[in-house]
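Example 3.2
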Amino acid sequence: MKAQLAIIGGGPAGLAAAIAAHEAGVRDILILERDRECGGILNQCIHNGFGLHYFGEELTGPEYAGRFIDMLKDTSVRVLSDTMALDLTPERVIHTVNTAEGYMQIEAGAVILAMGCRERTRGAISIPGTRAAGIFTAGAAQRYVNIEGYMVGKRVVVLGSGDIGLIMSRRLTLEGAEVLACVELMPYSSGLTRNIVQCLEDFGIPLYLSHTVTDIRGKNRVEGVTVSRVDENRRPIPGTEMIFDCDTLLLSVGLIPENELSKQAGIILDPRTNGPEVYENMECSIPGIFACGNVVQVHDLVDFVSEEAQLAGRSAAEFLQKGSKPAGRLITLTGGSDVSYTLPQKIRFDAMPDRIKLSFRVRRSFGESKIILRAGDAILASFKRSHMAPGEMERVTLPKKLLNEVSGNEIILEVKEA
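Structure, written as tokens:
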């Protein structure tokens, strides 16, 4: 099988990329989706809060996905659902399998990676205790409750303050469960401030910062957990233990971009994001392969996923129509000590549009502060912020004209208290 453009993943990133590529003139587009239908994680996110930036109105997750799925109906985009991508080669050959066609090889002129991310599990954080029933990732619990119609427990402790864990604290409370506590290892929440307020504070659920679960009791089913305060090195402090009698533990301890296919293709990954290194147009280190959405960086808002995916879709269309971008002058974007990562990692000056958006996250919470773009000793631009937190992705716009006077090949993005 052949396709001009193959998109791996039919979630919000894959859908937006397909529509953008179609609008840019690509007519032979194939989406590979491993689930029964497109929409990705949005299908189980029945709460509102989506679409404020992109559509200018508040939607639920299924409604947001439905808008893009409806757009596909007026295009020539093909969707292969229930189809698992097994391998990706540097030559843009995708090995897939499904129950209808069996094993297939798809030769693509360009590929967009939109596989999203997965949750970190209990095995990745090594909590002592037996392998009792009642331990779920927050996303798995969300699917059980919102799609399958099963209640996961009655007395719940949530470990981690990621957005899915916060939202499920509210969801389970509304379904009649008692959420005893949300426990966060770090001295700050990893979720959006609005979710802290709407999902914990509004329901009287306590948030314990600088705490973690140090033991799980119960053999056949969870019977309780031990929570301990941690020191500045994140080590449990003896004598600070609290015991919660519960039957369920939800884990919201981080998301990992799904980049097994990227590794197989030999794409260079950034250890800070665990996603592909990308240029200003979302192209990876292998020409003709692009990436967008949570497979590149874990976003806090799906509206920004759609925007990033549209850039990838337009860029893939341009690659198919005009070929590779000229190499020319290459500028590297790096972060200062309080910046955990920056994106894109590399900027091809000759191929850069008039302006590009840079995204990053900070390592700690900031009040009044400044974002500074610097090249050597020269300050290119400065942006004021009243608040920044690790749980919220920051974005700034970099005009191309600011780079005309840069003599070096590195831009540093710094954050400083005002």
